[in-house]
Design goal:
Elements lengths: L17 H36 L3 H8 L1 H20 L2 H18 L6 H15 L3 H11 L2 H33 L1 H22 L20 H10 L1 H31 L5 H31 L5 H22 L3 H15 L3 H10 L6 H35 L3 H10 L1 H13 L2 H6 L4
Helix pairs in contact: 1-4, 1-5, 1-6, 1-7, 1-8, 1-10, 2-3, 2-15, 3-5, 3-15, 4-5, 4-6, 4-8, 6-15, 7-8, 7-11, 7-14, 10-15, 10-16, 10-17, 11-12, 11-13, 12-13, 12-14, 12-16, 12-17, 15-16
Length: 434
């Protein structure tokens, strides 16, 4: 994991073959799978952790929400700046090694403060994962394939939840929640070496066949450029609100089913939710990028309209899941909002990279993720837990049900910002610096 600031050797700057591009994409997607296994594993373990450490829903929301997100987004900006100047491959390798080690340490904690500190460590490590990976992918895939490639990468979210839920749920049932952290942390450390020694650093501008690339501009210049683009302001707010609902619901959906239907096994609900995320969620993530690329050839606004339409369509199906009183029917319907809710990220990332220059891409991703994760990851789980606690005196075990109903209605506000972003996206793409 040395040579963190070196430049690619001359032998490495030839145009990459299609097969190798997809190999690199597969490795980076695997890293993102580990990212979300480690990030979301608390969702399926939190009822047992709550019982052993005597925690409230607000504490659980803080544990996997605001405290994690603050460090994730704070470290994300300087690491992304580093990625725009240095060797992104090595940064990704260092990042996965760090967050995997901190995940394993979660299994050794004896109180809430120690677990909080370990989760902060996971957040710091994960800050170095996605922005460098996004930048590498955009250098490997041309603009008309970029949303699809970034959507394939983003499917790591869904497969991470799938593997995390299934492995976490059953290992928890048989061996306890502490052993889950050891089981999922150790393979990530090995994956760090795969990244470092099996993929190369792509040449910047390779997909666009640009041979001369300017130096990375200062952080402030990138911030000013993005803020000056109305489409980005609305995309960032839409993504943040989208993530608020996604993380808020995602953090508490297992607890909702466990409490509402008096489930006794985490393995069963973890398997169902994992399969739903790994199938419907992954399909939605891929289709969001695929259809945006196809329709975007005719009109770039489809890169915004696809996630906007999917978001508003998800609302009635989500409400049905929370308000119906049949376990298996609710699980079956849950497939639909998971599919629709997953369609936003690939197109949004592609448009964010489309309005900036080559040396701004990692930082642009980090700024988008700053807003997305501060609003979504930071506040979604926490506020959902707080609403649940506030409603508990009146609604008892049903409090979480109505907290989820309230939270999902934010999708309407989210769709409004997608609509507004679509009004200026073509103009902002045309003004992109080279």
């Amino acid at each position: 994991m040395s040579e963190l600031n070196s430049t690619p050797e001359a032998a490495e700057i030839e145009t990459t073959s299609r097969g190798y591009r997809y190999y690199t994409l597969a490795i980076l997607t695997s890293v993102y799978i580990f990212n979300f296994i480690d990030r979301q594993i608390l969702v399926i373990l939190q009822e047992d952790i709550k019982a052993e450490l005597l925690l409230s829903d607000t504490q659980l929301g803080l544990l996997s929400g605001l405290s994690f997100a603050v460090f994730y987004v704070t470290f994300g900006i300087p690491i992304a700046r580093w990625a725009d100047k240095g060797v992104r491959r090595n940064i990704v390798a260092l990042a996965i090694g760090t967050w995997s080690l901190m995940t394993a340490l979660c299994g050794l904690v004896t109180n809430y403060s120690q677990l909080l500190a370990a989760r902060i460590g996971v957040g710091v490590g994960e800050a170095g994962g996605s922005p460098p990976s996004h930048s590498m992918i955009s250098d490997l895939f041309p603009p008309h394939e970029r949303a699809t490639a970034l959507s394939i990468y983003s499917m790591g979210i869904n497969f991470g939840i799938l593997f995390g839920f299934v492995i976490g749920g059953w290992v928890n049932d048989f061996f306890g929640w502490r052993n889950v952290f050891f089981v999922i942390g150790a393979p990530g450390i090995l994956m760090a070496f795969v990244v470092r020694f099996s993929i190369r650093e792509p040449r910047r501008g390779e997909a666009e066949k640009i041979t001369e690339v300017a130096d990375a501009p200062p952080v402030w210049d990138v911030l000013k450029l993005l803020w000056s683009r109305r489409s980005f302001r609305h995309m960032a707010l839409a993504s943040g609100l989208h993530a608020f609902v996604g993380y808020g619901v995602g953090q508490w959906i297992a607890s909702f089913f466990i409490r509402t239907y008096d489930l006794t096994s985490t393995g069963e609900i973890a398997t169902w939710l994992g399969i739903i995320s790994g199938t419907a969620g992954a399909a939605g993530t891929f289709c969001g990028g695929y259809f945006a690329d196809k329709l975007g050839k005719r009109d770039a606004r489809w890169y915004i309209w696809v996630p906007g339409l999917a978001t508003i369509l998800a609302v009635p199906f989500s409400l049905t899941v929370y308000l119906i009183n049949n376990y298996y029917v609710a699980l079956s319907i849950y497939l639909i909002p998971v599919f629709l809710g997953a369609m936003f990220l690939g197109p949004t990332l592609a448009m964010t990279h489309g309005i900036v220059s080559l040396r701004m891409r990692a930082l642009a991703s980090a700024i988008l993720f700053f807003v997305l994760n501060l609003i979504g990851l930071g506040l979604g789980p926490l506020i959902t837990g707080m609403i649940s606690d506030l409603l508990e005196p009146s609604y008892g075990d049903q409090a979480l049900r109505y907290a989820l109903v309230i939270v999902v209605l934010l999708y309407v506000w989210c769709a409004f910002h997608y609509l507004m972003a679509g009004k200026t996206i073509r103009e902002d793409l045309a003004r992109a610096p080279k």
